[in-house]
Amino acid sequence: MLPGSAPASVGAAMAAESAESAEAASGPSRLGAPLVIAHRGASAYAPENTLAAVDHAADLGIEWVENDVQRTKDGELVVIHDAGLRRTTDVEEVFPDRAPWNVKDFTAAEIAGLDAGSWFGARWAGTRVPTLGTYLKTVEANRQSLLLEIKGPELYPGIEQDILRVLRQEGWLDPVHVRSKLVVQSFSADSIRAVHRLRPDLTTGFLGTPRTADLPSYAAFTDQVNPDVETLSGEFVAAAHRLKGPHGKQLHVSTWTVDDAAGAVRADELGVDGIITNNPDVVRDAVGADARAGAVGSRL
User: Which residues of 28-65 are buried (b: 16+ CB within 10 A; e: fewer)?
Assistant: First the structure.
């Protein structure tokens, strides 16, 4: 159950858990090279948002992975970027009469039978769209950490509560994960406000580049402001770093999507705290980062 709807005993336990975690939760802090975050897993090397991409990131020694969450017709949370299934699965072949093939119009069982790998290459044929629960199990087994993006929350009313429910079921809302292994982000400020209201101990991120004059209002409910690299500037990073987020620590900046060494060096020089990339090994090598959390130069 979620805060506000749980029985008193459960609510008290959650409050205690939140209090234990809230002091430490703040997201990355700039101690050395920027944190390297594998965008949709190591998606330059394996089909995006699949377990194969997560595992490849782990093989490269990358701890932090980013993923996207949508909701099926029957309420299951699945890890896929697009609101539609057409680009990254064979849904058009399997269900030719079901255009426009949106995730929300298919059941979890129907999506589970789709091929989510052949579009990327023949060796990936038969790769599946993972549920969020299965994805979390894989990330945990790999001892990785997660930047979870809520996609299109306007399409899925209440998806924030659904995500928190699955995170709790999979053990991702305990103090250790909340403190150092999980960030929830979205392009929707309203969605991030909802997450912050429901679980104020969680580290959150807003995707986008607000006006610097508006950053103080974002700092009231989010710990990170994560801009597109095309909009990134040193002035923006400095303005964000002058502010403190809801946990009383410096507002952090992770930029996306940076896939080449020159771009990574430029982002590093502008002072970002994290770089989200399809090529995490390239970025890591370019900025001299040790991508394992807890090591010198890493964040969290």
Answer: bebeebbbbbbbbbbbbbbbbbbbbbbbbbbebebbbb
